[in-house]
Design brief:
Elements: H1 19-33, E1 37-44, E2 47-55, E3 69-70, H2 75-88, H3 117-121, H4 143-149, H5 167-181, H6 185-194, E4 203-204, H7 208-211, E5 221-224, E6 227-230, E7 244-246, H8 248-260, H9 272-279, E8 294-297, E9 304-310, E10 315-321, E11 326-332, H10 341-352, H11 363-386, H12 388-394, H13 400-408, H14 412-428, H15 434-440, H16 442-470
Antiparallel strand pairs: 1-2, 1-11, 3-7, 4-7, 5-6, 8-9, 9-10, 10-11
Helix pairs in contact: 1-10, 2-5, 2-6, 4-5, 11-16, 12-16, 14-16, 15-16
């Protein structure tokens, strides 16, 4: 492990933790989440309080403030600033129809003409993962192809009426920037956002494959029973919604801009009322989603704005605490649905408030329980196979419907495994392929596979034994 830090005395509140305390907390977080490395940036106003990293970068080095990470959906807050700059310039109407600026936006729905730029920014356009399931597994190489592909999409709600989180909204916004500005999104972000903020190590890439060629990029990992397994990121379109690659040092500059509205040289890239708009959810949405930021607390408690970014091999988290003028970001070169990254963010927020952080859930306990469940399922399956004939003999005197229930019950894990992507689409309104879900929690899926295979085997063995038991002796 190695760490680098800016002394916390510069501009920090008296209760703010020092660099050593924050570094120690990162070490504990990296251990408890099981993720290979984590970098962090903490700012107060325009001052960097802390920037550091612990763990390994997946390429033989140690994580540092200059290590590059994919930050996935944190990119939405960058795209929102780009769009509002064009609103500020009078080149886009925030409440005008998207088609006025982007004629190629032609979803197969009569309500599509009523979708406004504001709807896209607030994720209330009516587009959803369920309206165009190809979002989970597509071959689009650029934003123009994405917008063209939406000709087969439908709206699931009237524009402006309900919140549906989907990358589609911000991919359309990315294309909107390209068409109105007349240059690619990555170039626009470089010239109008990143360079003015001094974010020299930050880029926006169109696809995951394009980002893989960047110098200094931490290689991502998935966790299998708490052990990081390095692998390449799944390829796919990222521009507009998930394409930013950055460092902890650059994220400090980004967060300072979010708090102060100014660049390091005192320039104002976005008028204060427009920047404030990115932090303020519409009153009638009921979602808490603003424009690339989610309001997750207040008015009873301190205001907290945040956004997470998730890809199959990376995770990122940015948090603004406007009441105290403090913000922080956490960047990981690994991802697991079982890792308590939310607990880490809560812990950092507590430390910055001068409070004792709650313990982060240790992933080793979770995966240990999963392993025990998997072994128990295997043992139960072996027992079921050995006792299939005895089970069939007992069922001869039982009602047929109870036998049918007992015969099909072991098949339920297999049914769950097949239906899992559809179930999640219904429950959380997001679309994922089976492979994406496997990478998010391979240990959970492996236990389900064990349950499915053993269940099918037991059910088949019982069925064969039941036929033999009920057949005449000469036909056995």
């Amino acid at each position: 492990m190695a760490t680098w830090a800016v002394p916390a005395t510069a501009g920090a509140r008296p209760t703010a933790p020092g660099a050593a305390e924050l570094t120690a907390y990162l070490h504990a977080a990296q251990r408890d989440t099981g993720l290979p490395g984590v970098a962090a940036a903490v700012v107060q106003g325009d001052r960097t309080v802390f920037v550091g990293g612990v763990g390994r970068d997946g390429a033989g080095g140690t994580v540092s403030p200059s290590t590059r990470f994919r930050v996935a959906s944190l990119s939405k807050s960058f795209t929102a600033v780009a769009v509002l700059q064009l609103v500020q310039d009078g080149r886009i109407g925030l409440d005008g129809p998207v088609r006025a600026h982007l004629p190629a936006f032609l979803p197969n729905d009569p309500g599509a003409g009523r979708v406004t730029v504001r709807h896209l920014l607030n994720q209330t356009s009516g587009l959803a993962d369920s309206s165009w399931p190809q979002v989970a597994d597509d071959s689009a190489d650029d934003l123009a192809a994405r917008v063209a592909g939406l000709r087969t999409a439908r709206l699931v709600d009237e524009p402006g009426s309900r919140f549906h989180y989907t990358d589609l909204n911000y991919q359309v916004l990315g294309r909107l920037v390209e068409v109105v500005a007349g240059i690619p999104l990555d170039r626009y972000l470089r010239e109008r956002v990143l360079d003015p903020l001094g974010m020299g190590s930050t880029v926006s890439v169109p696809t995951a494959a394009a980002g893989a060629r960047l110098d200094g990029l931490a290689r991502g990992s998935v966790l299998l029973f708490g052990r990081p397994v390095a692998r390449n990121e799944l390829d796919g379109l990222l521009a507009g919604s998930s394409g930013v690659v950055t460092t902890a040092a650059d994220m400090a500059r980004w967060l300072s801009f979010q708090l102060t509205g100014r660049t390091p040289t005192g320039e104002v890239p976005l008028r204060p009322e427009l920047l404030d708009l990115t932090h303020r959810p519409p009153e009638d949405s009921g979602s808490g989603y603003a424009m690339g930021w989610q309001l997750t607390s207040g008015p009873a408690g301190p205001v907290r704005l945040e956004h997470t970014g998730v890809l199959s091999t990376t995770f990122a988290h940015q948090v603004l605490l406007p009441d105290t003028g403090v913000a922080f970001a956490l960047l990981y070169n690994g991802n697991s649905a079982l890792a308590d990254t939310a607990g880490v963010a809560d812990g950092v927020a507590a430390l910055l408030a001068g409070e004792e952080p709650a313990a982060v859930r240790d992933i080793r306990l979770t995966v240990g329980l999963l392993a025990a469940v998997g072994l128990a399922v295997l043992a139960a399956g072996a027992r079921g196979l050995r006792r299939a004939a005895r089970w069939a003999a007992r069922r001869r005197t039982r009602p047929g419907w109870t036998t049918a229930v007992r015969l099909t019950a072991p098949v339920l894990p297999a049914v769950l495994l097949v239906l899992l992507p559809g179930i999640l689409r219904k429950v959380i309104d997001r679309s994922f392929t089976a492979w994406q879900l496997t990478l998010a929690a391979p240990d959970v899926v492996l236990v389900l596979v064990v349950g499915a295979v053993t269940g099918l085997a037991v059910s088949a063995a019982r069925g064969v034994a039941l036929i033999r038991t009920r057949a005449p002796a000469g036909e056995q």
